[in-house]
Amino acid sequence: MRLLVDTDAFCRLAASGLLEEAAALFGVRIHECGRLPALPHMLRRGRLREAFGESVCDVLTSIANVMPSCGPPSAYWLDRLAALESVDPGEALLLATAAEAGLPVVINDKRALRALRQADGLPAALSGRVVVLEAILIALCDRFGAAAVRRRLSPVIAADRMVQVCFSPDNTDPEAALLSYYQHLSSEVTRGPERGQQEFDL
Asked: Beta-carbon neighbour count of residue 158 at 10 Å?
């Protein structure tokens, strides 16, 4: 594995046919991207199937099956992440693997990112390795043009508020909207409100 991708980011990129292009930004292929062990099962039943539909999830399952599952990492980082209520077990596994193996991780769970600064040592271990969906979409717009990315994202617009706002028909500048989202998130997660908290660089 050379890149990790969380479930939310995987679904949005893969359902749009943009996962391969997103992986290429890191110089890797889809089969070199790690995902959560439970992802194929999650695509076969539950909320993802309801959100994206059966036919889309069947395609996503076939893509997920060519990707290796991540982990399990040691308990060193998992224990620190387990103490954070805003980080679910899946994100904890992914982020602990990224910290331990020194891998970049594409993530769309904003609640988890906001909580990471509370885990001792984790901001430093992940600094510069966390890539949010907004940053991926900005890079794809730069490479392929905003109009092309907008067309590709049409299957997932209803499933993601940020995508819905940035790529709405009324928005003539998706890249500016994406940058605004990114800068706002970065300001939230890079410095904690309490004195002495570590910086966490996206």
From this structure: 11
